[in-house]
Write a structure and sequence with these properties.
61% of the residues lie in helices and 5% in strands. The chain is built from 55 helices and 13 strands. Among the domains are: 14-141, Alpha-Beta Plaits (2-Layer Sandwich); 151-222, no CATH class; 247-308, SH3 Domains (SH3 type barrels, Roll), CATH 2.30.30; 425-575, Alpha Horseshoe (Serine Threonine Protein Phosphatase 5, Tetratricopeptide repeat), CATH 1.25.40; 1163-1277, Serine Threonine Protein Phosphatase 5, Tetratricopeptide repeat (Alpha Horseshoe), CATH 1.25.40. Keywords: SH3 domain.
Length: 1277
């Protein structure tokens, strides 16, 4: 808030602040650009993209920040973004950007993917994103911020602009107003405005206090000046009509006697020709009396113009020089265009050998989504025939120049020359006698020229080098001032008025540079007096008035300002192509702009904005020029001719300024708006490509946003003309589509490039043919590529450089066709060419390709040798030049060492590849390297810590390339890695990563992944013993699974939920409901017998542990039946065993014995593993216990014990043998009464007890043995 204005004074009580909103809703809509109809597919994609950005909104916030808006929230379900503003400047800039269409394209660039720009350019089907803003809400937000910041400007009912400090609304009475002039900005408004007193009639008083209209943001900003030197707003009658500028003739309506020689004297009815233009908001204009020829200032109110300017362009630009201003400022030369297209057309593939990349041999999945371009995609046979025809044509015109003399990017000059086409300096000698008229004759004669000459530009132009450099014989400005002062005296004495005026002007400029304003004012006034109203050199007159007015403004001399400033302003606005001579010109033009706003003259406002922008650009002040360029374009949108050519160039100039301010989204939007203009030149489209390349995020591929501009440029070329340029454009499009995986479309464009190149140069044709062959290799069409390359070699039109590239590529194609011997011969030939030419990088590539060939042939030793030789060469080259190839070779070598079990060497090469990729900042190479390291530390040489580190880095890369699917997968993996560490801190980290992956899966609408993420979070909460959250997360996981309607997913999820409790240490009973009540019915419904069997087995084990064996019998029988049905003998044996165990717990000995024997019958014979023998020991022991204790049959029990003993002896388990011998000794001693056998078994038991250091063997029978504690796993080991 300005000083001196309190909140209460500004008229907004604290309680009413909520009435004035500062939030705004942006509604996004996907439409067809031409028809404006909704595009459902793009709308759905838009909603999905917004959903992804809803929880990760930093990119949206940054983009909106460039639009001067602050992000509040994203509502993806409604395709809305809510923003807010804190200052008036923010809402002003945002409303300007929105009106210019930048918001649409900024958000379009952000929300669509790279494939969007590569779609077929069908005008009727071209899609776009539109941003709709409620204009009333925008206006309310604007007014709200104005009220908060203090005084603002309104248009009153009497058509005058005044300043006020209070809001206007229902229920508020008349408020004090203040005119938009006079007092400093920070002062409070007076109680009653002075202009209100001048309104005498009641109707006028009522009009003055009627509800005013708030001025638009640009006008609010433009009217904020500290001091207005001429305040005649109240004296000028207000008008409701739009005022137009005038050109041509005017008729005097009153007599006028000029008060000075510069003012015209005329009588009523005289015809006056307007020189330049007459600005309605200014009191003067420059005219020429038709009858007398007198030139002078004419008062605007004393004439009636005969014709107003109808076209806005005719008053913005008063001559051809001004009309071409934007074209010249943003000039994109042919050399710039050549360098740009050489870069975009992939010239490197023509001179550098290609590395055989295995991952690129496959056809990318993007091919399935590739949209066909009309008339493209020739068949291979057709392509080969075209190649042969082109090569024949190439042989016949072998001496053609490589490129035409000119591409014709810029039209020939219209003949309008700049005032300063040639600027010779004045040759002066400081040793001459400057007081001698003869010594200065030539100089004074030149300076006394009545009209303008090109050499005078340096005297007037502020932006040119110092004045001392204009005079070749004088180096110091002080010395120059002294010399010029003497020359002034000579000119004065010799009565050379024009020379005197020019010398006084230069002396005045020198005084201004030293801040001697009063002395400078004297010189300028003397110069005007010397001219005596002579306007022969109009540029001199404009410079004099502008400099003099600037001094009066700085000295705040109101009386002088009233006399000079209006005339200076009229000269600046009305004179075509005037020369900027003072920095203060901006202040004069700002005052003229204010007058135009107050006078309601959009044409004058546009003219003032153009001159202000031109002034600041002339002084290398692009940031100061921005608001005027933006307003000029807005006025053109509202009033200008839709077919005008200058807006396209103006938008590009604006884009360049935004680019310098590091506002890439705005720059790209400017470029896009420029391309949608009805008129566009080839140069502007190529400049658009350059601006996109400078501002679009590159990630790891060229930005696809350049595709529309390249296609437009291609469409502008006339058939048969500009073949060299056509070839480069087609090659650029081919390389672009290739980088984005659309090799089929790339082949079509490169075929067109070949046909265009046939008419230019054989060397160029060969380059295009090589590139075409490589695209066929990448597309998986190696036979076609081989035919093309062989045809080029047979035609003998390739240079030595090109021959090496061709031979190397031929070998790659032969290798992929399995013709190893021929491939090796071609590689050897390519290696010789590279060595002869001394190309180390090409040698390294050939050696690496040789290594890959040996690897394919199974010669790993040779492959290692050649790959190592390639690494030696690559390591001596700059990484920036060959980083991608070097990384690939290092990864191949690391993979080779890993396969040969040399893990340490493999790890070193993987890490080396990773470091090279990081050094070159090549994202794709970094992703390949870090994936190999992740695999190495997870599978080859497991290291959880290293695995976490590299997965974390891979996650950061996924975020940089904006791959949300990969990001979600990596978050899942990292969560599992932390979970495996087994510490509470690791569990909490795992929970954090799980929740982050959950957010991404929700945004991607992958319900299956979302369900598992909810369940994983619940599992971690279970481990952390936060039981109150476990059930909640599991329930949400179930809901997500059920939402999909997929019973298989529900089955998997319910089983996994049960596993959390089944594998846990508490609340295990909860697993029963998940298995029995939810998962098992789904398994039966879907007919998934494997899952049903698995669930029954888990239920049997769980119910047995939960002391409910009777309930477990049902599931055990089902498990047995399913095992028999599936023919799964292992599960059948398990089912019999569990049935036996359940019957044993229920006291059903005979059934238990039956099922144990059935289980034993399914064991393999002979026994293969120790575990099987141990199983025999355990089961026979259990059978012996059942027979002995439950069925009371010691004789049969002894038989089972002896079978167990045999198995234990076979196993060599001494502890088990000791226990079994003890049991046998007990039975024979106490029940079978065989003392001899009892003693034998007892002695055996004692021997094992001594060996095992067990002191006593108890032969007394114990009932607890029936519980068979040795069946516990590990008890017998």
């Amino acid at each position: 808030m300005p000083p001196g204005i309190s909140r209460q004074a500004s008229g907004t009580p604290p309680g009413q602040m909520g009435v004035y909103p500062t939030d705004l809703t942006l509604q996004l809509l996907a439409v067809r650009r031409k028809s404006g109809l909704p595009d459902p597919d793009l709308q759905q994609a838009l909603q999905g993209r917004l959903r992804l950005l809803e929880n990760d909104s930093w990119e949206v916030a940054r983009t909106l920040g460039e639009l001067s808006a602050r992000l509040l929230s994203i509502h993806s379900d409604q395709e809305r973004i809510v923003v807010t503003f804190k200052t008036f400047e923010e809402i002003w800039k945002f409303s300007t950007y929105h009106a210019l269409g930048f918001t649409h394209h900024c958000l379009e660039n952000l929300l669509v993917d790279q494939a969007f720009w590569l779609l077929s350019p069908d005008e009727d089907e071209e899609a776009a994103i539109q941003v709709h803003v409620d204009e009333e809400a925008l206006k309310l937000t604007h007014e709200s911020l104005l009220i908060q910041e203090g005084p603002f400007f309104v248009l009153c009912a009497d058509h005058h602009v005044r300043a006020t400090t209070v809001p206007w609304g229902a229920g508020r009475g008349p408020q004090p107003l203040k005119r938009a002039s006079g007092d400093p900005q920070g002062e409070a408004a007076p109680a009653v405005d002075s202009s209100a007193h001048r309104l005498s009639t009641p109707s006028k008083e009522a009009a003055a206090v009627a509800t005013p209209e708030t001025l638009i943001p640009f006008h609010q900003w433009a009217l904020r000046v500290p001091w207005d030197p001429f305040d005649d707003a109240a004296d000028r009658p207000g008008t409701s009509d739009i005022q137009s500028m005038a050109m041509g003739l005017a008729t005097a309506v009153a007599d006028y006697q000029g008060s000075g020689p510069e003012e015209m004297t005329f009588q009523s009815g005289d015809l006056i020709e307007i020189l330049g233009a007459q600005v309605p908001s200014l009191p003067w204009f420059l005219g020429q009396h038709v009858a007398s020829g007198q030139v002078g200032f004419v008062q605007t109110g004393l004439v009636r113009v005969q014709g107003h300017a109808s076209e806005l362009e005719n008053v913005i630009f008063l001559n051809e020089e001004e009309r071409s201003f934007f074209t010249k400022e943003g000039c994109f030369s042919e050399e710039d265009a050549r360098q740009l297209l050489r870069r975009t057309s992939g010239a490197d593939v023509y001179t550098v050998f290609s590395l055989d990349r295995l991952e690129e041999a496959e056809i990318e999945p993007q091919e399935k989504q590739e949209m066909p371009f009309p008339g493209l995609h020739p068949e291979p046979r057709e392509t080969l025939q075209k190649v042969k025809n082109v090569l024949e044509q190439c042989k016949s015109c072998h001496g053609c120049p490589e490129e035409p003399v000119s591409w014709g990017l810029h039209a020939a000059s219209s003949g309008a020359s700049s005032p300063g086409a040639e600027e010779p300096s004045f040759c002066l000698d400081a040793e001459d006698d400057w007081a001698d008229p003869e010594a200065l004759r030539s100089l004074l004669q030149l300076l006394d020229t009545p009209g303008y000459k090109a050499c005078f530009r340096g005297l007037y132009d502020l932006s040119l080098p110092g004045l001392s450099t204009m005079f070749c014989g004088v180096a110091d400005e002080d010395e120059l001032a002294g010399c010029l002062a003497q020359a002034r005296g000579v000119a004065k004495r010799a009565s050379l008025p024009v020379a005197l005026a020019r010398l006084c002007f230069v002396l005045g400029r020198l005084c201004v540079r030293k801040l001697k304003l009063s002395q400078a004012r004297v010189y300028f006034e003397e110069a005007l007096g010397a001219l005596k109203g002579h306007f022969g050199d109009l540029f001199l007159v404009v410079a004099l008035y502008a400099n003099l007015a600037t001094i009066h403004l700085k000295q705040k001399n109101r009386e002088k300002c009233r006399q000079v400033v209006p005339k200076a302003s009229s000269l600046l606005l009305g004179t075509p192509g005037h020369i900027c001579s003072t920095e203060g010109e901006a202040e004069l033009l700002r005052l003229a702009l204010q007058r135009a706003i107050g006078g309601r003259s959009p044409q004058a406002e546009a003219r003032a904005c153009f001159l202000l922008a031109k002034h600041h650009i002339h002084l290398k002040q692009p940031e100061e020029a921005l608001p005027f360029l933006e307003r000029l374009l807005l006025l053109h949108r509202a009033l200008g001719c839709p077919h005008a050519s200058w807006p396209a160039d103006c938008y590009l100039l604006l884009a360049d300024f935004y680019s310098r301010k590091c506002l890439p989204h705005l720059a790209l939007s400017c470029v896009r708006v420029s391309s949608l203009q009805t008129w566009g030149s080839l140069a502007s489209l190529l400049q658009s490509v350059d601006l996109v390349l400078r501002n679009a995020p590159r990630a790891h591929r060229p930005p696809s946003q350049v595709a529309p501009y390249l296609r437009q440029a291609l469409a502008l070329l006339a058939p048969g003309a500009g073949q060299a340029l056509r070839g480069l454009l087609c090659a650029s499009l081919a390389q672009l589509h290739s980088h984005h995986g659309q090799h089929r479309t790339a082949i079509s464009f490169m075929t067109q490039a070949v046909e265009a190149g046939a008419e230019t140069s054989g060397h160029v044709v060969v380059d295009y043919l090589v590139a075409l062959a490589w695209l066929h290799v990448l597309h998986g069409q190696s036979p076609v590529a081989l035919d093309i390359l062989e045809s080029v070699l047979d035609a003998a039109v390739a240079s030595v450089d090109q021959e090496g590239v061709i031979v190397n590529m031929t070998a790659i194609a032969l290798k992929r066709l399995g013709r190893t011997r021929l491939a090796a011969e071609r590689y050897y030939r390519a290696l010789r060419v590279a060595r002869d030419l001394g190309r180390r990088q090409n040698q390294a590539v050939v050696l690496a390709n040789f290594g890959a060939l040996c690897l394919q042939a199974g010669a790993s030793g040779l492959a290692q040798h050649y790959l190592l030789e390639a690494v030696k060469l690559f390591s001596r080259l700059p990484s920036r030049e060959c980083g991608r190839d070097f990384t690939q070779v290092l990864l191949q070598l690391g993979h080779l060492y890993t396969r040969r079990a040399l893990t340490h060497q493999g790890k070193c090469y993987y890490e080396w590849a990773f470091l090279v990729a990081v050094e070159t900042d090549h994202l794709e190479s970094q992703l390949h390297a870090v994936r190999q390291l992740c695999h190495f530390y997870s599978r080859v040489k497991p290291s959880e810590a290293q695995c976490v580190v590299y997965h974390e880095f891979q996650l950061s890369l996924a975020r940089r390339v904006a791959d949300k699917v990969l990001e979600g997968q990596l978050l899942e993996t990292i969560s599992q890695l932390y979970l495996s560490l087994g510490t509470e801190r690791a569990y909490r980290s795992a929970l954090d990563y799980t929740k982050r992956s959950l957010g991404i899966f929700i945004d991607l609408q992958k319900k299956d992944k979302e369900a598992y993420a909810w369940l994983q979070a619940g599992k971690i909460y279970y481990i952390l013993q936060q039981t109150e959250l476990v059930d909640l997360y599991i329930q949400v996981a179930q809901n997500a699974a059920l939402y999909t309607g997929d019973p298989n997913l529900g089955l998997e999820l319910f089983e996994a939920a049960g596993d959390i409790f089944f594998n846990g240490a508490w609340e295990r009973k909860k697993a029963v409901s998940f298995y029995r009540d939810r998962a098992l019915p789904l398994a039966v419904t879907t007919g998934n017998q494997e899952a049903e069997l698995r669930l029954c087995n888990k239920l049997v084990a769980l119910l047995e542990e939960l002391e409910t064996p009777q309930e477990g019998l049902e599931f055990a029988h089902v498990a047995l039946a399913l095992s028999i049905t599936l023919g799964d003998r292992l599960n059948e044996r398990v089912a019999y065993h569990r049935l036996a165990a359940l019957h044993h717990r229920l006291g059903q000995g005979e059934l238990a014995e039956h099922f144990y024997l059935k289980a034993l019958s399914l064991c393999s014979s002979p026994l293969e593993f120790d575990e099987e023998t141990l199983y025999y020991v355990k089961v026979y022991l259990v059978l012996g216990d059942i027979i002995f204790y439950d069925l009371k049959d010691p004789f049969d029990a002894a038989g089972y014990y002896q079978l167990a003993l045999a198995a234990a002896v076979d196993l060599g388990n001494k502890k088990a043998q000791m226990k079994i011998y003890t049991r046998l000794a007990t039975i024979y001693h106490n029940f079978l009464l065989d003392r001899e056998k009892s003693l034998f078994f007892y002695q055996k038991a004692r021997a094992f007890a001594s060996e095992l250091s067990i002191r006593r063997v108890n032969l007394a029978p114990q009932r607890c043995w029936g519980r068979a504690p040795w069946l516990v796993p590990g008890h017998l080991s």
